[in-house]
Each structure stands twice: as structure tokens, then as C-alpha cells.
Amino acid sequence: MKFVTGWYVLYVRSRCERKVDEYLKDISIESFAPHIKTIRQWSDRKKMVLKPLFPSYVFVNVKTSLEFHQALSAFGACAYISFGDTYARVSEKEIHQIKLLIGDSNIVDFEVTPQLPKVGDMKKITYGPLRGLHCKIVRANNMNKIIVNVESLQQNITVTTPVHYLEEV
Q1: 94, 103, 98: which is closest to 37 by C-alpha?
Q2: pTM of the predicted protein model
Q3: Pair 44, 57: CB distance under 8 Å
Q4: Residue 152 — very low, low, confident or very high, per pLDDT cuts 50/70/90?
Q5: What pLDDT score does 112 carry?
Q6: Alpha helix locations (H) across 61-168?
Q7: Which of 9, 101, 135, 150 lies 20 to 30 Å from 109, alpha-carbon distance?
């Protein structure tokens, strides 16, 4: 995989987003771990708490290959998110839009969910043992289990795969 400067998505251990973000800033690497305000209900009280907008993700703006590898040395950092042979990258515009979204103090407790493909959509599988095959979405219950119909085989195949392994035909 080739390194290019820009924003990358670093996968971190559960509940380590803030620690990794602080460590990266301490070693002068620009990072961003967006948090939102949410109201938590306990048996005796309600409390406003911060929770990660993208659990287990920290965005890292790396400018050199050294910074790219230093970010992985943070305690709690696991790996960069990749799709096949390509690292997940986020544009400066998208980072700016996320910052604007969480900067609005009137918004409390919202969820981020990727869009599921629609039943009947034609997709191409981009990763895994069925890479390159065209398929039709039969059922999409969640992000990791999608049932597709592979026409060339005339069979319904249950594929357990993240939705980001599918692309438009």
C-alpha cells in the first residue's frame, strides 16, 4: 500500500479514542477524535456525557511516512482502516464538515449509520473470495451480513461481508 499525505482513519481499541488523540497531539501529529454530547440515564440521575461519534476511530493527518508509523505507536492504536489494498482516507472538506456538525451545541444525541444498499441494487464485490462478481442485493439486515444473488451461479449465496466491500456497477 502506498503512502500519500492526508487524513487517514486509525482503528483504536474500544474506549481509547481520547487517549490516542491526546497522545498524537502531544507528539505534534494532527488528529481528530470527534465526540458528541449525549444524555445517559442511571437509576438515580441523568448526566450529560461525551461519547465518540465514530467508536474506535481516530482521524490522523499525516504529512510524512514517519508520522504515519508513529501514529501506530500510540498505546491503544491497532491499525489503519483499509479497503482491500487501499488505506481509508478522508478529505479535508469532510473533516471540516464533521467539525461543523459536532460544533453545533444544540445537537444532542444523534447516530451515524452508513447507508445500507437497497434490495434489488446491482453491486460488484470488490474484496474477498468473490471479488469481481456482480450480484443483486436480496436482503440487507445490517452492515456485516448481506445476502446477495450471484446471477452467474443462479444461486443465493449468503455473504458475511461489510457493506464497504460492495461498489456500484
Answers
A1: 103
A2: 0.64
A3: no
A4: low
A5: 59
A6: 65-71, 92-103
A7: 9
